[in-house]
């Protein structure tokens, strides 16, 4: 009998009793809107902003409705105007180019390397060719590029960096928290990220002008002082008639459950990476399958794992994905012809008129991706790895010429 996996790849942990009680307290109060507070009361959303800023070691933080909203606000707050070119990763999730398109700007896609990070040579070339002033850098699936080299390219081309840290909340590059290299960082607290409020996000920065603009953009109804991590009042005075209200505020209910989760974020990150390492260990040294080697300076959070089947013909990859699925292991394939289930690629974002990137196409053609929810045990991870390796061996054996 072949081994089967029975778990669910989309099942996150339940919220803790403390988080549930915090949510119930907010519901009992009736004061769900972040600006609906009693005299002297610090609203949950404001308290969360102060706590997340402190966690990040950042001066300012604005809690918002989604990671996508945070990115759109970051683009506006850094001065991106309609028609501007904005550099971004070809390998990322749809809300990233979506945020660029949403402000009327033009995404310019930069290729991906075999390590799944942004191609720095291509970045330099595209920066020259496009005249872009802003890079929306996506740490897609938690892979952090060489940030030291990236910042050299960025300085040489005078780019402002906005970091998309949807998969790197709690991760570090060379000891520095992900999101602390660029001018602004954006985080998501959507269910499949590292904290779960269903939907939600943060914008984090040390720049007082960007922070004040972000507060107004989030829809502050002229209550900036009700925010938890903000610049001095004079910055708001200066800008208050210049910035539109885009109504993307976080509410107190989500903030209350996030405050509890922030307390155990670091512990959760360790648990994710243990599971990642358990899967990875089972996938090493297989014919035709490559794990992604992680740089020493990268303290990543293993909430998902990627591996490559380089040079496998598309029908073989499709058959492999099907066989894994039949045994309960859900993989996403970035080389599939049709965009589906969270997995589209730059070539599918036709509104952005993407230029083809042959090297990126080659990497994506053999790229597989799997979620690792914390509901999986280490034994589950070992079982999943056995199933994937069985099927990878079977797939390679059927195609002896390839190895
Ligand atoms: C999830 C995600 C986002 C933002 O997601 P929202 O659903 O808008 O909160 C941004 N970038 C990447 C790479 C993501 O996976």
CATH architecture group name of the largest domain: 3-Layer(aba) Sandwich
Number of domains: 2
Task: Quickly name the level 1 CATH class of the largest domain.
Answer: Alpha Beta
Q: Output the strand order for the largest sheet.
A: 1-9-8-5-4-2-3
Helix count from the secondary structure assignment: 13
Q: What is the percentage of strand-forming residues?
A: 5-15%
Biggest β-sheet: count, sense, barrel? Answer: 7 strands, mixed
Indicate the multimeric state.
Answer: single chain
Radius of gyration: 22 Å
Low-confidence stretches: none
What are the secondary-structure elements, in order, as H or E? HHEHEHEHEHEEEEEHHHHEEEHEHEH
What small-molecule ligands were found? pyridoxal-5'-phosphate
Q: What would the average pLDDT be, to the nearest integer?
A: 96
Number of strands: 14
Structural class: alpha/beta
Instruction: Report the helical percentage.
Output: 25-40%
Query: What best-fitting shape do the alpha-carbon axes yield?
Result: globular
Head-to-tail CA distance between termini: 28 Å
CATH third-tier fold name of the largest domain = Aspartate Aminotransferase, domain 2
The CATH homologous superfamily of the largest domain corresponds to: Type I PLP-dependent aspartate aminotransferase-like (Major domain)
């Amino acid at each position: 009998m072949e081994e089967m996996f029975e778990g669910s790849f989309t099942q996150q942990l339940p919220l803790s009793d403390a988080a549930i009680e915090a949510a119930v307290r907010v519901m009992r109060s009736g004061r769900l809107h972040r600006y609906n507070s009693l005299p002297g009361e610090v609203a949950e959303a404001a308290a969360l902003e102060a706590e997340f800023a402190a966690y990040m070691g950042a001066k300012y933080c604005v809690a918002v409705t989604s990671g996508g909203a945070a990115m759109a606000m970051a683009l506006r707050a850094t001065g991106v105007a309609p028609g501007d070119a904005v550099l971004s990763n070809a390998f990322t999730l749809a809300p990233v180019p979506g945020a660029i398109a949403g402000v009327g700007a033009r995404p310019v896609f930069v290729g991906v390397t075999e390590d799944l990070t942004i191609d720095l040579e291509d970045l330099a070339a595209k920066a020259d060719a496009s005249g872009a002033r802003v890079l929306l850098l996506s740490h897609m699936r938690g892979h952090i590029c060489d940030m030291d080299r990236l910042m050299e390219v960025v300085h040489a081309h005078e780019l402002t960096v906005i970091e998309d840290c949807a998969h790197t909340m709690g991760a570090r590059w060379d000891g520095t928290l992900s999101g602390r290299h660029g001018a602004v960082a954006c985080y998501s607290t959507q269910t499949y990220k590292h904290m779960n409020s269903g939907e939600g996000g943060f914008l984090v920065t040390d720049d007082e002008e960007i922070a004040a603009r972000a507060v107004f953009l989030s829809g502050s109804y002229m209550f900036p002082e009700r925010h938890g991590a903000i610049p001095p009042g004079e910055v708001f005075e200066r800008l208050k008639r210049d910035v539109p209200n885009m109504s993307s505020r976080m509410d107190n209910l989500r903030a209350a459950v996030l405050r509890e989760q922030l307390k155990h974020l670091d512990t959760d990150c360790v648990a994710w990476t243990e599971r990642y390492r358990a899967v990875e260990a089972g996938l090493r040294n297989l014919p035709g399958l490559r794990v992604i080697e992680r740089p020493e300076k990268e303290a990543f959070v293993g909430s998902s794992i990627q591996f490559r089947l380089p040079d496998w013909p598309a029908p073989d990859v499709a058959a492999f994905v099907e066989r894994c699925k039949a045994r309960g292991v859900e993989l996403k394939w970035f080389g599939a012809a049709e965009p589906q289930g969270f997995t589209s690629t730059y070539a599918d974002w036709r509104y952005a008129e993407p230029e083809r990137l042959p090297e990126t196409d080659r990497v994506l053609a053999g790229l597989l991706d799997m979620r690792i929810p914390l509901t999986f045990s280490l034994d589950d991870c070992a079982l999943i790895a056995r199933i994937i390796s069985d099927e990878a061996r079977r797939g390679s054996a059927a195609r002896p010429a390839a190895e």
